[in-house]
Amino acid sequence: MGYSLRFRAAAIVLLGSMAVSSWSAVPRAAAEPASGKSAAVKPWDARKRLLEQVSAASGVPWTSLAAVDQYERTINTARKRKASAPLAGVYYTEEEWFGALNPDHSDPSARTIALFGGAGTDGSGDGLADPANDLDVLSSRVRQLTRFGTGADNWKIGVAGVYGSERAVERIAQFEKIYNHFQKLDLNDHAFPVPLKANYSYRGTWGASRGWGGHRMHEGTDIFAGYGVPARSTCYGIVEVMGWNNYGGWRIGIRDVNNLYHYFAHLSGFAKPLKPGDLVKPGQVIGWVGSSGYGKPGTSGKFPPHLHYGIYRDNGTKEWSFDPYPMLRQWEKQERTKGLKVDAVKP
Ligand SMILES: [Zn+2]
């Protein structure tokens, strides 16, 4: 009941400030993370509400905001740094926020910061540009991103301007597609790459000097299984790469919203309707185990059939692989005890 009252108050403030500027401020209290009285609010819900508020104020769809916010979160993880505010993933350095020549990094007055050309603005309507306030940081970022307008092309130019690379533009567009398709933020369920009822075996072979299929440094885990055992997406994501590779044979690469690239190699074939740009979910069949690779397109049978599964993290400028074995063990165990939480899609 307190919730609906507060929500109504928020709507009134929102309407009131719309008269002043099309880029309205939203009240701070409404976006604060769960605490005390509103402890029932889950973090995903709080995040969704924050995105919806900034969406209402800026006219940018919440899925686009989610993509940007999540992109920054993944870059923070890769670079081992913390987001500026508790809920949003947005990251500002003090110089960016307060302005490079601003001598006082403790004065969050929106007016002073604007004077020094800092990126910090007030999104919550209290006159302060507080780098620890979720509405302030997310609103400030969206202002930078929509400098040229909110249309699709202008948004892309804005994204390239803020993040400085085509790679970031591509990632954020992928995340947008994922959020648009699944319409939720919580996309962290996983599945083991082959059905648990199949006959398979694997062990930690990370860094072995040479794996099956000619990988120079073995970047992944080989899951041995018979020809035709289904290979399944391990995550919610988007098909980024699909086709032939001289080492990997018929292979598929899937990007998830954690900016991880899941690589499946040596397949005997792909699940038929699947194509690059398609959205997939955990447990969805994407192809079948085989022994393709190590030669020109179509080469097969140079080693025993297995699924090569690799995982790569993007830090915004480069990608590197890490050992998927511990995650595979975890996903296998989860699926064994709890079952697959999402519906497996048949090809
Ligand atoms: Zn391998």
From TrEMBL:
E.C. number: 3.4.-.-
Keyword Hydrolase: yes
Signal peptide boundaries: 1-24
GO molecular function, one term: metalloendopeptidase activity
Top-level taxon of origin: Bacteria
Domain M23ase beta-sheet core: start-end pairs: 216-315
Broad enzyme group: hydrolase
Keywords noted in UniProt: Hydrolase, Signal
Pfam families in UniProt: Peptidase_M23
PANTHER family: L-ALA--D-GLU ENDOPEPTIDASE, PEPTIDASE-RELATED
Protein name per UniProt: M23 family metallopeptidase
Taxonomic source organism: Paenibacillus aurantius
